[in-house]
Amino acid sequence: VGLLGGSVGLSLRRSGIHVVGYSRRPEGCRAAVEAGAIDEGCTQLEQACEGSDCVVVAAPVDKIAELAAAAADCLEPHALITDVGSTKARITEELLQRWPVAAARFVAAHPIAGSEKTGVEHATASLLDGKVVVLTPHPGLSTDVVERAEAFWRQAGGTVVRMSPHEHDRHLAAISHVPHLLASLLANFPEAESLPLVGSGWQDMTRVAAGDPGMWTAICQHNRHAIVQQLDRFAAELAELRTRVAGPDPAELMRWLEAAKRRKQAVS
Amino acid sequence: VGLLGGSVGLSLRRSGIHVVGYSRRPEGCRAAVEAGAIDEGCTQLEQACEGSDCVVVAAPVDKIAELAAAAADCLEPHALITDVGSTKARITEELLQRWPVAAARFVAAHPIAGSEKTGVEHATASLLDGKVVVLTPHPGLSTDVVERAEAFWRQAGGTVVRMSPHEHDRHLAAISHVPHLLASLLANFPEAESLPLVGSGWQDMTRVAAGDPGMWTAICQHNRHAIVQQLDRFAAELAELRTRVAGPDPAELMRWLEAAKRRKQAVS
Questions:
Q1: Residue of A126, A180, A227, A264 to mutate when probing chain B, most B C-beta within 10 A
Q2: Contacts of B211 in chain A (CB under 8 A)
Q3: Which of A40, A88, B99, B128 has the fewest CB atoms in 10 Å of its CB?
Q4: pTM, whole model, 2 decimals?
């Protein structure tokens, strides 16, 4: 029950839904109760899952498949499992290969509502409101299970879209994983003597570099293939940009900056 | 009298200093008076400068030297000229070479307080408060002129540091100009289908891409040499990052992400 799991809890509790949290550490349960994210906490997975209609696995991506499989063993037949992981293909493949019974009730999800902040103390009831939640159901799932997962995420405040795990991972590599790595690169980039001169541009561009290194290492491992592809594409575009800046025609650079401005304003 | 010039005006007027604005267009003067940025506006440069103690040239970098020279012709002997340009070497060289008399009273300055927003309507009295203002006085200036320029920028709310124009331009290429180009690159980077999925990370990292393309083209022209150098250094570090992500050792990637996090948190 951290930033995302806690926010799901806070959001659901607005509608009177009973939320049970799981944390191995009693302090983790206590903090989540105090933050209002859960009604009660359990340090035993089996106990936490007992009687649940839906389990949300809100863990680092390299822990999700195993935790989902463990939860599946404790659940009643109708209950479904979903997650909040930033990568989807490898989690789904791992479950399908190693835990096919759990996979039959696992609807992979990614609420696009992260932050560089972590911990239940930063969770808010509105974090998911209006945010896109990508569902990447595998073909083996029943329509009923997928529809219930959709209803669940809508209930939590999200706007649900569906695509395949690989599509998700390719998009996210381009718009989230590579940008995150670039933020870290920009944080490491300046010489120490330049740092006193940084302005709000650098501050905004490096904000996510304060995110959890362990979580992002796991994401990079999971989505390595798509990330490397997008890094190569970025490097190629960087080389073109270098030519544009070094070249003799300022009008061409200006047109490119204008296109970027239009792109940005269209998405804002 | 735009975002920066207007903010200097608003800030100085807090202390009861009389501020005269110059704009070729009467609407420009009117908007600046309405925003409270100036006491009065003039559409004639000569009239605007008459009786002034200090002239602040708040124009795109490719217009500053010429405007400073024009202002110098209208000023009383004691009056000094400063600016807000994001590049310093070429402006200083241009003045020294073409207008040495104007150069003798020109103390180049860069308040590090930009925004992607433009126009006097976004100016605020506190924009400069506590912000670094880099002064890059050339060796031909008298101590008195430089000290008065320092006092002026402190009065406007800034924290003054001094360095050479080339030092300034090298630092700013690394922490502002290259990051700005990367923001535009990130804005142009995603395929159209990925855009509905962007989250707050991408939004923050591309914020400055909404800045004025003309202004940034001029900055890239002025500081081309340092920017290209820093772009090459960035491309080399990007290639190393690619190796780190593609490579077999997640611990190495994690150490690098941890270093970036520490760097970011030390500057926040």
A1: A264
A2: 261
A3: A40
A4: 0.94
The Cβ-side half-sphere exposure at A146, using a 13 Å CA radius, reads 14
Mean pLDDT of chain B: 96
Judged by CB atoms closer than 8 Å, whether chains meet at A228 and B246 is answered as yes
Q: Does position A32 have pLDDT exceeding 90, yes or no? A: yes
Burial class (CB in 10 A: 0-12, 13-18, 19+), A223: buried
Would an 8 Å CB–CB cutoff place B221 in contact with chain A? yes
Question: Which 233-252 residues of chain A touch chain B by CB within 8 A?
Answer: 233-235, 237-239, 241-242, 245-246, 250
Instruction: Give the other-Cβ count within 10 Å of B187's Cβ.
Output: 26
Residue A128: the pLDDT is: 95
Average pLDDT over residues A100-113: 97
One DSSP character per residue, B113-128 reads ---S--SGGG--TTTT
Q: Among A110-119, A141-150, A220-229, B189-198, name the one with the lowest average pLDDT.
A: A110-119
Q: What pLDDT was estimated at residue A117?
A: 85
Mean pLDDT of A113-126: 90
Instruction: Tell me if A183 and B175 make a contact (CB, 8 A cut-off).
Output: no
Cα B51 to chain center, whole Å? 27
Residues in chain A closer than 8 A to B190 (CB atoms): 171, 174-175
Q: Are the Cβ atoms of A175 and B115 closer than 8 angstroms? A: no
CB A149 within 8 A of CB A82: yes
Q: Which of B38, B71, B41, B33 is nearest to B55 (CA)?
A: B71
Task: Give the span between the Cα atoms of B13 and A257, in whole angstroms.
Answer: 35
Give me chain A's average pLDDT, please: 96
Tens-place pLDDT, residues B177-223: 999 999 999 999 999 999 999 999 999 999 999 999 999 999 999 99
Task: Quickly list DSSP for A154-211.
Answer: HHTT-EEEE--HHHHHHHHIIIIIHHHHHHHHHHH-S-GGGGGG--HHHHHHTGGGGS
Tell whether the torsion through CA atoms of B177, B179, B180 and B186 is positive or negative. positive
Q: Residue A27 carries which side chain, given as an amino acid letter?
A: E
